[in-house]
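hi support,

uploading two proteins for the ticket. first:
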Amino acid sequence: MQEKLLTISIAAFNVEHCIRKALDSIVSAKRIDDIEILIVNDGSEDGTAEIGAEYEKRFPDSIRLISKSNGGHGSTINTGIENAHGKYFRALDADDWVETDNLDGLIERLSDIDVDMILCNYNECIGDKVIFMQDFKEIEDNHKYQFNEIINSIQWMCYHSLIFKVSILKEYKIRLDEHCFYVDNEYAMYPLPYVNSFVFYSKPIYCYRIGVDEQSISATSRMKHIQDSKRVSYHVVRFLNEIESEINKSLYTYLERNVSRICTWHFNSLLYFAPDNEKRKEIAHYDYMIKKKNISVYHGMLQYYKETKSLYYFPMKLIRDSNYRLFNMYGRCRRLVKQIMKVIV
């Protein structure tokens, strides 16, 4: 297999119903010879591996099927990094896809640059319809930046918008939690201390499918995987503490703000449960642990809600100010409002 400009690692678990769309969006690129596609079959029990083998046979110079025991989303990315031979690395979930024409434009650009990271716009889609495009309007297209120049003008660079240089991921042994949901937050943070330069590509590459009931961001899934969101939040707080003395203030401020955001996600998820004394104790203990681990993140959680004008600002403030005594009352009021809204609708 010739040297490639871009490795696209596809996380594939029981995705026989959708992986062809993801693969076809890549193999249709004019510069497919510059792309390495790793289909990381994560212990699928359907026809995912067979479809992967079919595409590997059709495109032997570009596609490799890697089958492994089930380890979760993080393990597919870890495996992709370990096996990547391209210059740059892009993770893709098999139920999503890429904009083929824009991918061609990106490959053209990658042949002329040498940076640590590429930041891209991305689409959010329901079905095939684009309903929102994440646009980093404050950054100039095709301009090479030093990371510290621009970091604090960006609110959040997520999994769908990031492409990293493979050598950085390998050299610094970037690894995500395995058997765990929500590790996309780790992927979007762990490599950043080693990024010095980046460029922005304004055309959206990643098409992120939303509005699906089984998605990890749905309320049902958040409740089901509540221990995973806690685990990831504790790990990113630990990461922040460990690298504080090694990074500059601008990057630390960015990371601290977004670690706070990740911790609010778990706090929010706890509010979905039926209120009782056990859940009240759980949310109080979680808040106590965050405060103990990093008090700036603890205060940053409420600040994040305030800055984003979130509806959760006052519930969090109320619950904290009451020493969590009002947690059950808030939960009962929330559930009552939801029942009333269902009747009205």
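and the second one:
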Amino acid sequence: IFSPWPLRLDAMITVAAFFWVVPTLFLMFAIAFAAVGWHPNGTKSARWAALGFLTAAAGSIFDTQRTYLPPMFNTLATPAHWIAVYALLQSILVRHDQHIARIPLLIWAVTSLSAHIFLVTFNHPLPDRVLLMNITVPVIMAMAFVPMLRSRKRPIDTVLVWLVGGAIITYPLRIAMFVIQDQARELLGPYAWSQYSIIFYL
């Protein structure tokens, strides 16, 4: 009667359900943007957004459901995150015919992918890939931040700049939380009990 396990089981079910709500919301956004993007009067911006949310949905499933998926899918979570972020940045930039400078983008892509392949090939623990993702994503966001600043013409452009700027700041904060709270230990255990993971997806 006084065992904590029933409460723990209820909590795990709740958290597991949360990790399915996230990709479901991403898919809903992907469908909505696809409907707008491929309408006869649709925009390239909406099509990029649809790709971004679709990839985000796939990446979140690969990441949070790794217990039930073959190991290969887990290794795809980080590249999916990169593609999702790039596509969503593109959806903002193409509104004003802007883009991330190609040479820095190419250097970033080659460096990030090479590091990821190295970590996966030599079977580094998951926390190493977590740190790689949290270091590389704000870099590509920062590269998009400059052309976004140049192309501010309406209030919505300023709002988007603030949103992306705020998102950039969250990644170093995630690394700090990951290291200070020893989240590597939680990530290697039952995924539903990782504070880092829950805050990340919120």
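thanks. also noticed: Residues 5-37 form the longest helix (33 residues).
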